[in-house]
Amino acid sequence: MTGSRHLKALAAPYYWPILRKEFKWAVKPSPGPHPIEYSLPLLIVVRNVFGYAETAREARRLIAEGNFRIDGRVVRDYKFPVGFMDVLHIVPTDEYYRVVPVPTKVIGFVKIPREEASFKLCRIEDKVTVKGGHIQLNLHDGRNVLVRVSDPRNPVEDVYDTLGTIQLSLADNKIMDYIPLAENTLVIISGGRNVGRVGLLKSVYRGMGVRRSIAVIEDKNGNLFQTSLNYVFPIGKEKPLITLPEGAWK
Question: In 45-179, which residue ranges form alpha helices assigned H by DSSP?
Fold first, then answer.
């Protein structure tokens, strides 16, 4: 359905919690920070995940009234794509949730305390040098962060590598911490058949590009498994910086 404004229910990602045989059409996410394969439209989150509405009309009204914030910003677009590491604030109940990968369901909502809702983890997808020799980090959720360097010929401030993760303050878009993609880094898997599994990165076998590189992960029980490096998302150095689903890590 690429290029179309509509999406048939049968063509929607398999993990969407919708009735495919009862309704012909599903809400297609707007172009935004997350691809359709790894996101849920806000309407489906409100109606199908949390059950705050029984119909699409009710959900659209609740969203239009400004009852939901994503990453600290009120979102009134019912098609807005909600994806990994986004922070959802339900204003009337003052509850906060973080979107994390979970087994089978792919997208899960983990309740978090207010203090944790002040930041999100963003994976560095690419980095470029911009005017003045400064470094621009392009993140997985469409954000760009500028790292200013004092000497372009010796950019000591540039300690960031692609596929590493930054802890980003949502209030001022400032970098709070950096988690490199290194041995024994704690990671979560964001896709594939191992989606949602958490473990320590043990080694990487480089192939032709990120998608063909293989990462070896050790889970909490000491079992090793492999996945594409493209699905590896660092979440901590010694312990996770975010709240994980119960039982996901020791």
Answer: 56-64
